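Bumping with the actual sequence this time:
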Amino acid sequence: MGLSPELFKRLSRLNREVLRGMATGTQVGHRESGRSKEDSIASGDLTLESAIPGREQESAGGRIYVVRRRIEELRPAFAQGEGGETGEGPDLLARYRRVFLGAGRVAAPADLHEAFRPVVQSDPGGVVYLDIETCGLAGEPLFLVGLMQYREGTLIIEQFLARDYSEERPLLAGVWQALASAACLVTFNGKTFDMPTLAARSLACGLFHWPTVPAHVDLLFEVRRRWKKVMPNCRLQTLEQLVCGRYRHGDIPGGDIPAAYHDFVRARRGEDPIQRVRALRRLQTIVHHNALDLVTMADLATRLLSNDAAV
């Protein structure tokens, strides 16, 4: 398969960015509200509720923190604006509606690989995207699970956050409850990592029964089938740059996430308000990182099902 002119341009741009060590293209970051980051750190007055608006939720005899947002609330705002784009990011929501609810799909289910068919054979509202964040390698505690689903006319992101290691069990129970009505689960490398980790951590926390999702589509396998020969690698953020045309700005590397979460737990227990604010800012970035991973999965799914996949 040859490279399309558009993909060639994106590959060339990525090479130039690496050489220059600079971020170019559409930048993806989280919105800062109110006072600047420096001001909030200096005063030490930032709270979890103001940094990451959410709500407490009862689950399995414990309490967890749940962040619920519409995709339009992220930056870039993935909602339709004038001319079909927002000026900050691609019009993902409008394209998602065309592909999954309208006439924007090119491939018929019979023409898709059998492992990828459930994503279009399921009711759009039953397709749930999932991404997890853990405290380290396999077997380590899990502290954040993001889910995204088409509801209320938009894509809703719901993230389950354990504010402390002790909240892992109620977090897992809340996630399994949310997945009980899913018709099709969509992950990226989820058959190898996310779902085995969820199962192992559930057992470790004393949860022995959970719902079985009828279908599980791992996008990594479909991406490799389609683009392995024309991509430098099949990492999610490489695809985000070269297929979706977005470059993250101010993101946290995946390898730094466990240490940042441990810092947050220690700072939350401690008495240093400055350390608390710094840790909260990094946690804010982790939550946004997780949300953008969900968005990119949905973006890739629409492109795999439409002409935008012809790279």
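The tokens above came from a reply further down the thread. The two ends are 8 Å apart (CA to CA).
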